[in-house]
Design a protein that fits this description.
alpha+beta, globular
């Protein structure tokens, strides 16, 4: 190779690797900004140094690539113009070859740079192809790693959301309960529990060290844990925490933004924010802080929230279905007959060692041998006393192994035992009698496996030491009592298992045992569906295990709608809607007579308990969905989780209360509320600020505990009759009569709808019908959301990130939810949003579409979406990841589905490898 060409390759390679080495040697990978004053050539003033360095490397490598391209073109020109001259052709070939080698080095350097940046910074997205902002009003960097993958489930406004009203509260949904003393301070700046009254003052100001709100352009005025008293951050902000301590609502006392321009704001949570127990909320997250940004517009939100009619489930139903002939469902049954006592674990052991004549005493230690041979012959061969041969004692032609003695006289003989004979001679031999290891027998029901043992606890079925078939049958009966899937009945030496849920699904319950010689298994069979002749009247009556779901047109304040029925009954409740249903404390004879469906007491003195159904209300979908789940246990789903039912054959109603409106005393109180400038009497019995059309100012009356009805995040009172105005809690607008105007005249702004429940349980699991982007798709846009389409309506409160712990009654099992993972560690933030669709255009929602939203993805990286069995449909049935059109070859041997293919190989946490 000519000297000149060698110099070309050397120059290209050395310069590329120098850039990599220089980048690695720069030890500061922090997020402190750098003012480079380069006029936007490499990045604006205040750019992240990682982005700046990456941009320099990108420009340099692009320059080298251009040189390589010029050399290739030059070589081509020489070749084309050589006119057959061999010297020119050879020269062109040489330049072309060397240019290509240089190009390979450049591309390799690019790959090395990509890898190093991604490993050291976790922020490769902006480093590979950084996007620099042209306006200082747009946020530059958001640390979102805790969102989705760690302790934060969602935020509102969302990251990079624009046109946010000035009077909107900021909300954060956590996965673990908050320590309230880390959230709030009093007027003196001392930490205290949110809502606590001290010397007549309510503790509700945000702790500025833990929670920081600031204009993005001005940046955070606090440095580390030090916040100067006078700074540009917004600290005049109240904090409220939901009953479950999972939702934090931040309400600025003065509106954010400006009436004349849009302004970007950022919210930052520091490591000072703690969870219950005192540990930092961000302790196990990738970053010790969490921040996101959004744009506040110049407008105020004065539009009240509504329930979306076509997005409630079940739909209003005015007439119960007529059921004629009924053939009840039959539960599947199985049987276990005990023939002999199952095996419990016992280790392999040496029974005795018998030396031959003139052979010395020896010892041995058993290994984990499980074979049938129990008597062995150890021989020192004539060739060497440092070797040992192992034979089957009863068949000395069967050589089982050979080993070498170590300096202490030990020799390992296969997986049978370790033999020790320090004093030995050629020709010595010993008979070794051994008891094989016995593995414990197991019994599997569904996804739960029981182990036979002489000890109690865990998943053991405890057998007596002196065991026989009758004692074993008793032990199995006791051990299976309380199983989440089956009821048990003992018949002599047999145990009859009956599925807790009637119907054909019980036929699919797995029943297996490793003790086939001791236990005779008859698998589940005989489960039959309920058969009934039903005449539909109006809407179809819903199954008992239905979860009630209401979707709002905008986020609502969770303080009024999230929690146990007893905690939010003043705002939202589910009641018996039969005309003569009785309230709390009234004498009753059956549950169906009571508003609460709870008639309790002695036979001589029974009374209704409560005025509403017990259960809990769950808020999800970024505070736009509220769901009610009963607390009456009625069976289990296909994953062994408990399911809960509404009263059978019942007529129920959901009732929501609107909040009282802000009161005024004179027109002076309304001057700043244009166009609601007049203080006038209202139908509510008090004066309110009104406009020229006598419409009320929509903001709710707030006291120390908040509003007395449902409000949105801008404190607008709920609009029950959907006329776009807040009229307060006058009467119940009934959605059952939405098309009958006369029935709803003057019914505002409380809200109600009613429906019927049948006596059936729906146990059909949900399936995914499509995912976009598709499996293994390349070239996906960095901002593209992931779309998951379901075949049915889903329970939105389970469509969230992370995992859920399910108590099967025997143990707690982690069930994965919805997660987005990269092939490398990064600061990716992601959250879930859901929409309901009416696919058959019958007016009732029947399909959910889930969207995984995220911060910008990173180039040249593979991402994986995980949807696990913690996700449930509207009937509480768990999603089975292996059960769908997108997976092939699923069987008992390969029960899991990873990347479209059946497998039995998973990571230790149950995730796909």
């Amino acid at each position: 190779m000519k000297k000149k060409n060698k110099l070309i390759i050397f120059f290209l390679g050395f310069f590329a690797l120098f850039l990599v080495a220089h980048f690695v040697s720069a030890q500061d990978f922090g997020v402190d900004v750098v003012d480079n004053n380069l006029g936007g050539t490499l990045g604006e003033s205040g750019s992240d140094p990682r982005v700046l360095i990456a941009r320099i490397i990108q420009i340099a490598l692009s320059f080298l690539g251009l040189i390589a391209l010029v050399l290739i073109l030059y070589a081509g020109f020489l070749w084309m113009s050589s006119s057959g001259n061999e010297d020119k052709i050879d020269k062109a070939k040489s330049i072309l070859k060397n240019a290509l080698i240089g190009l390979v080095i450049i591309l390799s350097s690019w790959a090395i740079v990509t890898y190093i940046i991604s490993r050291f910074t976790g922020s490769l997205g902006s480093a590979i192809n950084p996007t620099f902002n042209t306006s200082s009003s747009i946020p530059r960097v958001s640390t979102l790693g805790a969102l989705g993958a760690c302790t934060i489930e969602s935020v509102y406004p969302e990251n990079k959301q624009i046109d946010v009203p000035r009077n909107t509260a900021i909300t954060i949904k956590f996965k673990e309960p908050l320590d309230q003393t880390s959230v709030c301070v009093n007027d003196a700046g001392d930490s205290c529990s949110c809502g606590e009254v001290i010397s007549g003052e309510t503790c509700n100001l945000i702790n500025p060290q833990a929670i920081r709100i600031f204009k993005t352009e001005l940046e955070d005025a606090c440095i580390g844990n030090s916040c100067p008293e006078a700074n540009a951050n917004f600290t005049n902000v109240t904090a409220s925490i939901s009953q479950d301590k999972l939702s934090l609502i931040l309400t600025p006392k003065e509106y954010l933004g400006s009436p004349s321009e849009n302004i970007w704001y950022s919210v930052k949570l520091s490591s000072d924010l703690r969870k219950e127990g005192g540990k930092s909320m961000l302790a196990n997250c990738q970053s010790t802080s969490f921040a996101w940004s959004f744009e506040v517009s110049s407008r105020l939100d004065l539009i009240p929230p509504q329930v979306v009619y076509g997005s409630i489930y079940p739909l209003p139903d005015n007439e119960k279905d007529l059921i004629n002939q009924v053939i009840p469902a039959v539960a599947a049954q199985a049987k276990i007959t005990v023939l002999n006592c199952p095996n419990v674990y016992s280790s392999s052991s040496i029974l005795n060692i018998i030396p031959s004549t003139n052979s010395p005493e020896a010892s041995a230690s058993a290994l984990n041998y499980q074979g049938d041979i129990t008597s062995f012959l150890v021989v020192i061969p004539s060739q060497s006393k440092d070797k040992a041969q192992l034979f089957e004692a009863e068949d000395i032609s069967n050589l089982l192994g050979v080993g070498d003695f170590d300096s202490q006289g030990n020799v390992r003989l296969g997986d049978f035992f370790i033999f020790k004979a320090p004093e030995r001679s050629v020709g010595n031999s010993w008979i070794v009698n051994l008891k094989s290891e016995v593995k414990a027998d197991t019994l599997t029901i569904g996804s739960y496996t029981y182990t036979f043992d002489n000890k109690t606890g865990g998943n053991n079925i405890s057998l007596p030491v002196n065991c026989n078939s009758a004692a074993a049958a008793d032990a199995i009966y006791i051990g299976l009592s309380g199983d989440s899937l089956v009821d048990v009945l003992k018949e002599n030496n047999s145990i009859v298992l009956r599925s807790k849920i009637a119907g054909p699904d019980g036929n699919n319950i797995k029943l297996e045992s490793s003790s086939l010689g001791n236990l005779q298994i008859e698998p589940f069979s005989g489960g039959v569906s309920r058969d009934a002749s039903v005449k539909l009247n109006d809407q179809k009556d819903v199954p008992m295990n239905t979860v009630l779901q209401l979707n709002f047109n905008e986020p609502v304040n969770p303080l009024q709608i999230a929690g146990l029925s007893s905690e939010v009954a003043s705002f939202i409740r589910v009641v018996n809607y039969e005309q003569n249903s009785k309230g709390d404390g009234v004498t009753c004879f059956s549950n169906s007579e009571c508003k609460s469906y709870n008639c309790s007491g002695t036979d001589q003195d029974k009374k209704c308990v409560g005025d509403y159904l017990p259960g809990k209300f769950l808020v999800s979908n970024n505070y736009k969905t509220v769901e009610f789940i009963s607390d009456k246990e009625c069976g289990v789903n296909g994953c062994g989780e408990k399911i809960y039912c509404l009263p059978a054959s019942s007529h129920l109603a959901v009732e929501l209360r609107s909040a009282d409106l802000k009161v005024c005393e004179s027109d002076d109180d309304c001057l700043a509320l244009s166009p609601f400038n007049k203080c006038l009497p209202s139908d509510l019995g008090y004066t309110t600020c009104q406009n020229s059309e006598n419409r009320n100012y929509p903001i709710a009356k707030l006291d120390s505990v908040g509003a007395n009805g449902i409000i949105d995040l801008a404190s607008n009172s709920f609009d029950g009759n959907r006329n776009k105005f807040s009229e307060g809690p006058l009467d119940y607008y009934n959605d059952n009569y939405i098309f009958s105007d006369s029935s709803n005249n003057n019914k505002r702004d409380n809200y109600r709808f009613s429906f019927y429940v049948n006596d059936q349980i729906n146990l059909t699991p949900p399936k995914i019908t499509s995912i976009s982007p598709a499996q293994n798709k390349r070239g996906v846009a960095l901002s593209e959301d992931i779309k998951i389409t379901w075949n049915t309506l889903m329970m939105n409160s389970t469509l969230k990130t992370g995992q859920s712990m399910v108590d099967t009654g025997k143990s707690k099992v982690a069930h994965k939810l919805v997660n987005l993972m990269g092939s490398n560690i990064s600061g990716l933030g992601y959250w879930i949003s859901n929409d309901n669709n009416d696919t058959d255009l019958d007016g009732e929602p029947d399909q959910t579409i889930s969207w995984i939203k995220h911060s910008e993805l990173l180039e040249a990286m593979t991402y994986r979406v995980q949807v696990g069995s913690g996700v449930r449909d509207i009937y509480q049935n768990c999603f089975k990841p292996s059960d769908g059109e997108g997976c092939t070859g699923v069987s008992l041997e390969h029960p899991s589905c990873c990347f479209g293919e059946a497998t039995d190989i998973l990571n230790s946490d149950g995730s796909c490898q």
